[in-house]
Amino acid sequence: MEFDSVAKAGSRLGTGAVIFFDQRTCMVAATRNLVNFYARESCGWCTPCREGLPFVLEVLTRIEHGLGE
User: pTM surpassing 0.85?
Assistant: First the structure.
């Protein structure tokens, strides 16, 4: 995929990232960190972001502290 051919087709490329973790990384904490960022940076316009991200953040925080259900 490259920019010009995708643009010619009437679409566009988004952004992406690759994150590497070693075996010592807590995946719950890493996911909570990412969700925290998106919850903070969301414009809050749509319901899934405005209500869903803080809820997911709360659930992940409870799991991280051993209080998940």
Answer: no
